[in-house]
Task: structure prediction
Amino acid sequence: MKVLLDTNIIVYREVHGILNSNVHELYFWLDKVKYDKYISPITIKEIEKYKDKKTVKIFKAKLSSYNILPEVSKPDDKYNNLLNSKFPVQEENDVIDNQLLYEVYSNRVDLLITEDRKILRKAILLSCKDRVVNIEDFLYQVKKNNPRLKDYQNLAIKKLPFRNVNLDDNFFDNFKKDYKGFEKWFDKKKDEEAYVCYQDDKVLGFLYLKQENSNEDYSSITPLFQAKKRLKIGTFKVNSSGFRLGERFLKIIFDNALLFNVDEIYVTLFESRDELKRLSELLKKWGFEDWGIKTTESGIEKVLVKRLNTYDNSKSVAYNFPNLKDITNKYILPIKPEFHTELLPDAKMKREVLDLSNFAHRYALEKIYITRAFNLDIKEGDLILFYRMGPENTIKKYSSVITSLGIFSGIESGFNNEQEFLSACKNRTVFSKKQLANLWKAYRNNIKLIKFIYYKELNNKVDLKTLRDLQIIGQNDGPRPFTKISNEQFIKILQVSATKI
Result:
């Protein structure tokens, strides 16, 4: 895309330094999305008029970083008459502004970025306001179309620049053995970001993701990929941790795939070691399928692909995740505050403090809720809104809130003995082994394990007062376990929370 920069932006950047704090970010994004930066010959002439010759000399030295429009195009009569009808020329700057606008109007450039309010008003008259924008509007749109990797605050995995990761950690030894030039590649990525998990200052897990557009070169992959938007799992390794770290990384992969709105996720990997075979098995459980091979100078890698935006009713909820069924029932599930954040750490309240203990149930993608409810008419793929009950000594209509969304993935009951029950819980509940044993002794005849996959936190939490105002919950009531709501009520909650699924 050809982007013409107005003189005032060039002056901010190249003559006076960056007076506007958004200018640095503007140039960052222009380079990131590979837009071509253009300046008009008029801009050069304007700056050449500066009395300070040193400033002019510095500016000319920086011209090589721009494309210069070859010549000034001449506005036609129709254009001049249209502008003069509301914006008659009064000074030389008007002529210059009109000339810059004409470059967009005549399609010589795709976009004009300016901080001049009069130029922006003229663009409305010319019916090209979507192609003449200020810095703030450009940044809003480019960030919307090119989201950055999602941040995570509540558990041990953090997003870090490559340059902050110690490549000498023995965690990376196998990468160095498997991939020729891995160290050079890693150094080139120093300004990019990856997800890293540390334990005792040692790397325990590492994930690098790359967004790829439909023009990506896939000539080394057989069968050849069709043109699609993809998320590539570029580098992914997890050491055995005992707290389901692999599932947490998968959640991060799926979150970013939804954020970038891709069609597919794919990964290439060797299967030469047991750890890689286990990784392949984990990926296949969550819907990755064998595609083919990738041939590189390091050898032949296996290619696995996960399709998005489609749902296979013959497969499990885990296999389909994060894809959602088109037709589902919706429920509200209350959870006591002391259990809520332990089970759903991503939905932590702002003022809550979560210790840094790495418990498996926090990291698990598929979790378990234990209940004694009878006759649950809930089916795999149905959606559950989690409702954090207000703590004691608080005003419940404000402190009780819907925080997040999950997908029901199955139910287990009718256990023959305590060991069978404990094995089914698999470190996916908030309860300790001793607490589970007590639950078994008290309720063994009607205990049920509700399995669900955590989908996402709501952008804005929805309190009980709002639920009552929307007539989703009665004025003097709170939701009971597995309160069924209509599709229309569910949509209202999403709208109020500013959440899209």
Q: What stands out?
A: The first helix runs from residue 7 to 15. The longest strand covers residues 448-463. The CA atoms of residues 331 and 484 lie 4 Å apart.
